[in-house]
From TrEMBL:
It comes from Pedobacter heparinus (strain ATCC 13125 / DSM 2366 / CIP 104194 / JCM 7457 / NBRC 12017 / NCIMB 9290 / NRRL B-14731 / HIM 762-3). InterPro entries: BVU_3817-like_C_sf, BVU_3817_N_sf, DUF5606, DUF6852. It comes from the Bacteria. Residues 131-178 are annotated as: Disordered. Residues 137-148 have a biased composition (Basic and acidic residues). Residues 3-50 form the DUF5606 domain. Residues 53-119 form the DUF6852 domain. This is Uncharacterized protein.
Length: 178
């Protein structure tokens, strides 16, 4: 399951795909049928990548990707997000058996189920996540290509004149009142 670039935005329903970034913020495209593009302000908007989201667990936290994978493998139908909270709790205890029942609320379960229904038909939901390089592997190409870079001059910068003398320091002591 490849959820790289899929984010949840605080204060907005649904999920978004990170398309790019500009001076004003992140350019996001909604994953619903309308495909609305928005620019989320960098300083005020909180984004949460679905790869990084975890669910409270009794022993250790559960990754959202694992919970979604269990939903795919669930024998029964995945309930609707508007289903009765008791039905959602029973389903969630099946797909995430070690979740902390005191910390994971029905609203959290509804949100995860609604995300599942948004993602299940997308092609990225069925493709493998790109593998990150292992810790022991060092990328030798990057180290070989690192050369000191010359800093480019701005186009409007003037070259110093040969006759220009450095400015003399002004005497900052005052002789008043002596």
């Amino acid at each position: 399951m490849n959820l790289r670039g899929i984010v949840a935005v605080s204060g907005r329903p649904g999920l978004f795909k990170l398309v790019g970034q500009n001076k004003a913020g992140y350019v996001l495209e909604s994953l619903d049928a309308q495909k609305v593009k928005i620019v989320a302000n960098i300083t005020t908007t909180k984004l949460a990548s679905l790869e990084d989201i975890t669910v409270y667990g009794e022993d250790e936290d559960l990754k959202l990707t694992d919970v979604l994978a269990n939903m795919v493998a669930a024998k029964g139908e995945v309930p609707d997000a508007k289903a009765d909270p008791k039905v959602l709790k029973a389903f969630f205890s099946e797909v995430a058996p070690n979740h902390d029942q005191e910390k994971v609320y029905a609203s959290d379960m509804k949100k995860i189920v609604s995300w599942y229904h948004l993602l299940k038909d997308l092609p990225l939901f069925n493709e493998e996540a790109p593998a990150a390089p292992a810790e022991g592997e060092a990328v030798k190409e990057d180290k070989a290509e690192k050369k000191p870079k010359a800093t480019p001059k701005p186009a409007n910068a003037k070259a110093p004149s040969k006759t220009a003398q450095p400015a003399k320091k002004a005497n900052m002591t005052s002789k008043k009142g002596v």
